[in-house]
Design brief:
Blueprint (H helix, E strand, L loop, with lengths): L13 E6 L2 E8 L2 H6 L11 E11 L2 E3 L7 E6 L5 E8 L6 E3 L4 E8 L2 H5 L8 E3 L8
Parallel strand pairs: 2-3
Antiparallel strand pairs: 1-2, 1-9, 3-8, 4-7, 5-6, 5-8
Length: 137
């Protein structure tokens, strides 16, 4: 599983996210080291998997794709769980940054094409919950 390749002394924390009724099992990156590492080191991402970058304090942030191995969709989400901005099919090593534009707390990174497939748009609300006991993130 790709999240096992993260370089960390502690096991990554997981969270379940409901995205327009579709479950996403995400690894949480909630400190500078894990947010910087992000999906680097993952060889691929499966449908229903993701990484939730938790910046803790809502502000304007940005992500990039330098060093990535696969395309993603990125959703900027505010502290209330409202999707503020969606970037679809962001390509690896694009050379661009992808800002939240609005103050956001989270960025959810998922498999490219998932937003289109699941009908995900700005203005929708996501919900977060702990993963089921015994399940992986």
């Amino acid at each position: 599983m790709p999240w096992l390749s993260l370089v960390s002394a502690a096991a990554p924390r997981g969270i379940m996210i409901s995205l327009n009724g579709n479950p996403i099992s995400a690894v949480v990156a909630d400190n500078d080291a894990t947010r910087t590492q992000g999906l680097l080191g993952w060889q691929h991402i499966e449908e229903g998997q993701g990484m939730l970058l938790d910046f803790v304090s809502p502000q304007v942030y940005a992500i990039h794709m330098q060093g990535m191995r696969f395309p993603i969709d990125a959703l900027w989400i505010d502290a209330n769980g409202v999707i503020k901005l969606v970037y679809q099919d962001i390509q690896p090593d694009s050379g661009y940054v992808y800002p939240s534009i609005f103050p956001c707390r989270y960025c959810l990174e998922i498999k490219a094409g998932s937003c289109k497939k699941f009908g995900v748009n700005a203005g929708q609300t996501v919900s977060f919950s702990a993963p089921a006991a015994g399940s992986s993130p």
